[in-house]
Each structure stands twice: as C-alpha cells, then as structure tokens.
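This part of the workshop introduces the protein records we will be handling. Backbone structure tokens are a discrete shorthand for how the chain folds in space. Once this layout is familiar, the rest of the handout is easier to follow. The record below serves as our worked example for the rest of this section.
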Amino acid sequence: MPDLAGLLKRLLTSWRGDALLAAVLAAWAIGYLAVAAAHGNPQWAALPFVLPFIATAAVRRRWPVAAAAVACTVLLAAAPLGAAGTLNGALGTPLLSVPFMLSYTLGTETGVATGLAGTVLLAACAQIAGGGFSPVAEMITLGPWLSGRVVLSRRRLAEQLQARNEELRAEQETFAAESVRYERARIARDLHDIVAHCLSVMVVQASAGQRMTDRGEVAEALESVAAAAAQARTEIGRLVEMLAGEMPSATSAGLPMVAELVHRASATGLTVNCCFMGDCDQLGPAGSEAAYRVVQEALTNALKHAPGAPVDITVRGNDTGVTVDIVNAAALESRASLARSGGGYGLAGMRERVQACGGCLTSGPTATGGWQVSAVLPAHLSRERGEPVPGP
C-alpha cells in the first residue's frame, strides 16, 4: 500500500498525470458529443475548441504562460464562433478543472507579475465566455493562484533549509576532523610533558651511575632513576584515566610540586636556584598545572642543551597574576646524545598551555649565551576551562 500511494503521488505531481487527466477529459468530451449527436443534437462544432482547451492542461508545467494564452484564446473565440453555448452547458462543467490547474501553475512556476497578469486575464476571458458575471470564474482562478504562491514560498523555504542543512553537515564534518586533529595534538603534548622530563632525569642519572665507582653514589643515582620512573608511571596512569573519561585518582601537579622538580634536577648535578616571591597561591588548578609544566619543560631543556649550567627559577605573584621566569646560563659541558632527543614540541606545548589559560609565554637566548623562558599567568582561573573568572 505505501508503494501504491507513492506511485500515485508521483503520477499526480508529474507531466504524466497531467497528460492522463487531459486524455480522460478529451475522451469524456468526445463521448458526450457522440451521445448528443445520437439523440439528434449534434454539437461537433465545439470539438475544435474543446480539444485545444483540454490540451493546455497537459503542457501547463512546461509552458505555463503559453498554455494560459491558448486557453484565453479559445475562450475568447468560442462566443463569436457559436461554441459558447456548448461550453457553458453540461460539457463545460468538467472543463472547469482546466483554468483551475492553469492558475495554480501560474502561481507556482512563474513570477508574481507574470502569474497575476495571466490569472486575471484568464478570469476575464472566462467571464466573457460565460456571457455575464459569475463568481465561479474568480474562484477557479484567483484562489488557485494564491494557493500556488503559498506552495512556491514553502518550496523555496524547504530548498533553503536543505541547503543550510548541507552547509551545517559540511561544517560539522570539518569541525569533527579539526577536533580530532586538536585532540591528537593535545595528547601528544601531554605525553611529551609527562614523560620527557622524567626520562631525561633517568638518562642523566643512569649515565652518572655508570661513571661512579662508589657504591653509595651509585645507589643514590639509581634511587633517583627509580623515583623518576615511578613518577612517570603515576602521571601516565592519570592521563589514561582522563582519556577514559574518569576523574583522576590524584590531584594534578602544580606550583607546590616545583620544589620536587628542583630537588630532582639538583640530584642530577644541575645547580638550580628557586625563589618564590609575593602571593603565588592565586592560580586555579589549570594555571597551577601550566606553571608546573613550564618549569618542568624548562628544566628538561636545560638538562639536554646546557649541561652543567646553573638555572635560576623565579615565581613572582602580584595583583594580576603570577609570573614564572626560568633562566639558565650557557652550557659548561659538551652536549651529550640527550640533546638530540625529543621531537621539538616542548616550546610549542608550553605556549599552548599558557595561552589556553589566558596568559602569554616568551622565550629566547640571553645576552650571556644562555636561555630564558618567561610565562605570565592571570589570576583566578576557573577549574573547568582555565579562563579568567570575574571577581566578587
């Protein structure tokens, strides 16, 4: 049954349906004239007017203006040639569907001015052919034309909505692809920040342990390696929990953990001086995490690229936020193979983290041949997004 209904709908809304209706009307008109002739009332003179009039219904979708012009010509010529009586009789009742369909098509397939002019002319010709005023002519012309205009407006609206849906679908696909790319970059950055520092410490301590002969010093170096590996394992576990959509079982690292970073870096033989000035507790979790990662990455870079050089860390709080400065001097020892490790994502990752918190990061060489990293983080960061929160 649904297939039959769909087939019927497609037939009625296509030129095939119009042709079928015209054929039915033509057969009925010929049959009516044949019956009239059999009863001694031949009216075959109306046939040359009836057939062209009916044929306009078959071509109304393709040539609506031309079809209306032909229908008007037939109606105007019927009275002078003596066929108006036949058309206004019983034969003309089914033919009222022709101006109805023509007016509707003028409303759906033509412009406002053209369609309205054709409809008014069609109504006037119907009045002339009828021999006097009749409201039926306006009912079967102006009413269908208005209905056609409404259908046309709804059709155009549906087309616009469909086009907009296509645009939104394309934008959604683009956004999804960009989100995947951003998420991959974020995961890569987090893995770099979590693993790189600890592994760098492990490599340095392992190299130091190989050169040491005193068992106490070897044990201390290997203990530092174990501690660094344990921290890397813990933070990777936290990252896995976050990627799985679970709340981390432990609190995130922050400024309070900077002292642990300094202690671990000092155990590698690196001279690190750390100083806290002002109110440094005004950062939220996101800002504190970003500050910690900046210090961590800066110390990692110092271990890689400036072995033996002292590092000065200054964390300064003020009314607007917290500034973190890390400065290392020029390398005092030759660079080892550790300097060639890494993928070059450290500075970019630091900058992205700080910018995500509403801050800014600068880095570059110093006048003495060392390197400086400076991060400025605004105060009162929200827990969810790391954005400034208005004060009370």
Q: What stands out?
A: The longest helix spans residues 142-211. The chain has two domains: 12-140, 167-378. The beta strands are 272-277, 311-317, 321-328, 360-365, 371-378.
